[in-house]
Amino acid sequence: MAVREILTVPNPMLKEVSKPVDKVDEELRSLMDDMLDSMYAADGIGLAAIQIGVPKRVIVMDLDWGKGERNPRYFVNPVLSDPSENTLPYEEGCLSVPTYFDEVERPDRIQIDYLDYDGKPKTEIAEGMFAVCIQHEMDHLEGVLFIDHLSRLKRQRAVQKVKKLVKQREQDDAA
Ligand code: K1U
Ligand code: ZN
């Protein structure tokens, strides 16, 4: 298992549409293990494979991270359907847009069909934070970031903030 670098805006890979996975095998499980390690190391609750530069339709998540428990979840080739009419506004963050948070409104309930860590097909209803997070991660698979749901001005501000942060981190690392 390994912690991999998480890509940040404006890296063009984050705009790529990820490709479906053919089979859930040891190689894919190793990728999911690395994704989980990378997510935990960055203090996140979700991660899409494209965020570590792998354009596959794979998501990992742990909504209990930070509560002192580990409940990792894996979603391969996820498909969302039947969104609720009710929406939930939530102040979202993203490991690819570090230190920037803003409100996005999404359906508060949605169905998800996917393959699990062992390649078994599963169906679940996501609600609340699970619904917010899975829709945020699904956007990553389509090359969409949460800041793409905001105004152009806010998006530009967010990208400028991250560019400045990354430059500062590079200077600190070189010192
Ligand atoms: O996709 C990602 O970069 C992960 C992202 C998931 C997410 C968080 C909040 C709303 C929607 C999606 C993060 O984990 S960012 C880190 C963060 O905001 C957070 C971390 C721990 C607890 C709560 C939020
Ligand atoms: Zn994100």
How would you characterize this protein structure?
This protein is globular. The mean pLDDT is 97. Helices cover 30% and strands 24% of the residues. The chain contains 3 helices and 7 strands. The longest helix is centred in the last third of the chain and has 23 residues, at 152-174. It starts with 25 loop residues before the first helix and ends with a helix. A hairpin with a 5-residue loop joins strand 6 (109-115) and strand 7 (121-127). By secondary structure, the chain is an alpha+beta fold. The strands form 2 sheets. The chain has a 5-stranded antiparallel β-sheet. A two-stranded antiparallel ribbon has the order 4-5. Zinc ion binds next to helix 2.
How would you summarize what this structure contains?
With 175 residues, this protein is an alpha+beta fold. The protein has helices at residues 26-41, 128-141, 152-174; strands spanning 46-48, 58-61, 73-81, 87-92, 102-107, 109-115, 121-127.
SSE inventory with pairings:
Blueprint: H1 26-41, E1 46-48, E2 58-61, E3 73-81, E4 87-92, E5 102-107, E6 109-115, E7 121-127, H2 128-141, H3 152-174
Bound molecules: ligand K1U and zinc ion (ZN).
Features:
175 residues, alpha+beta, five-stranded antiparallel beta sheet, two-stranded antiparallel ribbon, 3 helices, binds ligand K1U, binds zinc ion
Mean pLDDT: 97
- Shape descriptor reads globular
Fraction of residues in H or I helices: 25-40%
Distinct small-molecule ligands in the complex: ligand K1U, zinc ion
| Ends distance | 29 Å
Number of helices: 3
User: What is the CA-based Rg, rounded?
Assistant: 16 Å
Number of strands: 7
Outline the low-pLDDT stretches: none
Please report which band the strand proportion falls in: under 5%, 5-15%, 15-25%, 25-35%, 35-45% or over 45%.
15-25%
Task: Look at the helices and sheets and give the structural class.
Answer: alpha+beta
Q: Could you give a short account of the major beta sheet?
A: 5 strands, antiparallel
Strand order of the largest sheet: 1-2-3-6-7
- Encode the helix/strand succession as letters: HEEEEEEEHH
